[in-house]
Amino acid sequence: MRDGNRAPTLKEIAERAGVHVSTASRVLRQPEPVDGWSASALRVREVAVELGYQPNLWAASLRTRKTTTLGVVMTRLTDGVVATTYQGIEEAASLAGYSVLLSSPPDDLDAQRRAIELLVGRQVDGLLLSSLHDPGRPFIESLRIGNVPMLAVTRHAGSGLPFVGGDDLRGGHLAARHLLDRGHTDIAVVAGPRHATTAGDRLAGFRDALRGASVELPADRIVHSTFEVDGGIAAGRALLDSPRVPPRSSRSPTPSRSASWASPATSACASPTTWRSSATTTSPSSRNYRCRSPRSARPRTRSARRRPDGCSNWRPATKRRPSGYPCNSSSAPPPEAIS
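Now predict its structure.
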């Protein structure tokens, strides 16, 4: 009698179904034939379901030398782009009859090496590596993992591996053209980490487009950062604290890039009052000027908010001040910005 606390064996299933062990193994291992299951095969499968049988993939791999499992090393799964990429890998693997083992280490080489060795120890049939550092070839050559096939995803890192990813050069070029087509020439870039070829290729494409338009991108207008939120904030502050604050900046659609501008504008309020243009066109009459002041300099009382002291150029059409015009006479907007 079978112990209910352990998994059933093929021998027990074969005995209960009245077939040979090899028949039971073949029925449970193979997909349904085109002409359907035979009566004995159906009996084997019914017994397997009744006893709660699950195939032992590790035991089967000793015979087939395959586990139908892929290993994926992918950092920063909190990033929406990275998570979407992994979802695509999972879906494609499932359609091909493979399972996926995921390791999401920090974005450093030692952690990635440990993750790779862990997955290879699980006898995966192949590895997908998404976070290689440039240059990646020495790292790949230093791995002692036998002949496990490897594929670079997202970052090619100059690794020499087969590569699947986006056209980051083209993406950077399009970002620059977007700004140039709107008349912007004083541009800054939050460039991402130096070890990521995604960031490097985007920057290269961006600079190539600027060169084609004879627009200079000074070295002090390029700030490298991590892909994390804190890195984007630090890069944004570095640009805003520079002697020449850029009216427009290029940033990739990653959490760090958006965070550097969506975070509280403490750096933007470092000077007493600064006029910043939020125009999307080059026509002076279409610009919307906003006066950014430090919190300590902003009016506190309700009456003071109605009419800022010393603002000689402020001419409201009604008793209420137009939104976006807390100003003083030393930093008033251009006349064309006043209606």
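Confidence is low (pLDDT under 50) at residues 252-307, 314-333, 335-339.
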